[in-house]
Amino acid sequence: MKRTLPILIIIAGLASLYPMQRWVDGVRPQAVESTETLFMSSGEAIKKMSLGLEGLAADIYWIRTIQYFGRKLIDSGKPLSMTATKDLYMPLLAPLLNIVVTLDPHHIPAYRFGAIFLPERDMDAAIALLEKGIRENPAEWRLYQDIGYIYWQRAKEATGEEATIYYEKAAEYYDLGSKQPGARSWMADLAGLMRIREGSRDERETARRIYEGYLESDDKNIRAQAEIRLRQIIALDQIDAINALLAELEKRTGKCLPDLRPVGRGLMRARSNDPVLMSLNQKEREVLLGMRGNISEDGTPLDPEGFPYALNQQTCKAELSPESTVAR
Q: According to a count of CB atoms within 10 Å of the terminal CB, is the N or C end of the chain lower?
């Protein structure tokens, strides 16, 4: 009984951290979002206050992190995706995640959540979070996958020597991750792809491999985001192939098709050695022939979400329809 009472007091005090933080935040003026702050933002200070119950404190702050993110998302009315959430004002997301991993350095879901939703608002914070995760969990190969992906994204936005540095950092982390227990074979492959010189890099194929890797994630949000991006890549491949076919037909007839129905109908009848198809490259032929099971009743090719592709008569090029839900 003598030991039970102090433990109960500690647990009660620790549990009060969350409602106390909520109360403090609640009494602060909320009219100006830029004033969002945490009453206690030091993970080390909270760790000392937890008196040995860091795991429980980490769980409390992890719940708060998810609630904070979820409330922002609900209030915005937007769907859950990186593209939808990147503009949401979330100044407390990085500090909350840092508190969680300071209290529990082995909290892998916190690191991986940050890898998905931090880069769009603070890429440096996302990198710092994952670097800490790797230091604390050097055998967790998926953390190398996450930071490699972030550096790849940063490289795409950079130019010249800066881009080369970021591509090399991405390759370095994919390479290191490939050597960890349980790592997938495609990690080493991605390391090689990152080292291909910029002029010959097939970025879309690299993206496909990265997102296919994320389909194996334990986090359903990460898997859902990967599926969205893979459908986007498929749509881009299909649009490129349709446009190559349209250009060839325009060259042969001297005019643009009135709509895309002849394309779909032609694909349904076409053989692999069709003269028009044979004028295209192998990738374009494979994509077009693979679309034959995705044609509407009137003959219009459909995108991966089942919406008919549209034809822009001014450019004589296919594009996503305004109604399509494929990510842009």
A: N
